[in-house]
Write a structure and sequence with these properties.
The complex is a heterodimer of chains A (about 200) and B (about 280). With about 200 residues, chain A is mainly α. Chain A contains ten helices and two strands, in the order H-H-H-H-H-H-H-H-E-E-H-H. In chain A, helix 1 packs parallel to helix 8. Chain B has one domain. Chain B has eight helices and eight strands. The radius of gyration of chain B is 22 Å and the shape is globular. The chains are: A mainly alpha (about 200), B alpha+beta (about 280).
Amino acid sequence: MNEDLKKTLLNPIFKGNPITVLVLGICSSLAVTVQLKGACVMALSVIIVTGLSSFVVSLLRNSIPNRVRIIVQLVVVAMMVILVDQVLKAYAYSIDKQLSVYIGLIITNCIVMGRIEAFALGNKPIPSLLDGLANGAGYGMILIIVAFFRELLGSGTLFGLRVLPASYVPNNLVILPPMALIILGCIVWVQRSIQKDLQEK
Amino acid sequence: MNTNNNVYTIVYTTIIVVVAAAILAIAAMALKPKQDANIKAETISQMLTAAGFASKEDLAKQGNDQVLAMYSANIKNAFLIDAEGNKTGELETEGSIELQDNLKQENKNIASGNPSLPVYVFEKDGAEVNVIPCYGAGLWGPIWGYIAFNADCTEILGAYFDHESETPGLGAKIKDEAWFREQFKGKKVNFSKPDDAFNIVKGGAPAGDDSAVDAITGATMTCNGLDAALDTWFKAYIPFLQKKAGSAAGDACCEDGCCEEGCDHEHNHEHNHQEG
């Protein structure tokens, strides 16, 4: 694999992570991280939506009329989101119910539009697909880390299986959204202490 | 080619939208049977939860087939009633299970006075459990639920509520918070006030009120919607519920004047009906 593609693929996972560095997609990362299962499905959904919509927009990039490009992008993203929602309704109904409105809200996730505007409009389809997938994966990774701590400490379970002894008293604060923000803050802290160039003077 | 030309822009966006619509239409048609099967199993598991056969979480873990089998194994019969509480038709309960689950349509039919309402009669530990639905408008979309009554329909045994798009953490609590639906256990429908037969009270239900439960903080609009839904649907079902209650009471004490009270109710009901 050549260097550029490798960078496209790896950069969003850590160095340019959409949540911790670009601070995009915070809303849904607070909302769907109570349980690991939901977080994993959400992560997968976002990966598919960002990847495919970046790919499709990149294919169309030379033909899109500049004045209506945002609308065309929205049509593509909305179509992908509805497709994901329909497939989940057919094959993972209980998870779709659990994620409720957040699947529909992927369309407003800034990562999707952000990557289309910043990358897919100026790059070939294959790098755009990889960029979309990688950004979705970077988002998903943070989601899963946050969900891991929230489910472990908030319910004493992982993927619904009990891992902490029954005598553990679940911490209800962890279930509430504010704690997700605090965990997210800790992740940002850890990342910035490793990656010194992100620290503001 | 000049992509900023007006004609080009209009033709381009039209093509994109038509193509996207076509893809979505094909996907929706292809996935519909599978989705309908899921929705049917979900509806049935809501009834089973309300009737107290299993918890919603356990049912969600089982496949659709097990849920349908559980329904067939525990149901005694299911039928439709009209506005006077008379049976008008049967619903198939085994094999290809029939449900009257177009609650939106029935909600309109209740308003127009010509409903065809379902009653699902389960058998649990040798006693009948009557399950009826309700449907109404929440803050953002429809809300609905199933309420289970004991054999003579005088006491609520359980309830389950669901919604399409209420706010997570606020209105969505009608479904998520177990304490909310637990409150319905042991409550009664107030037959003497058919227009306001049940209340969800903001600030807490008054102690000793058998027909009221606490509302949820931060979910006023959803709770008001649910309150209105319960009032509308209970009103529509009261003739049926009263008949059930009346026949049970009649069996027990027809000799000592209970009947008269029963007749009184009946009379009141007729009166109300004419006014309505």
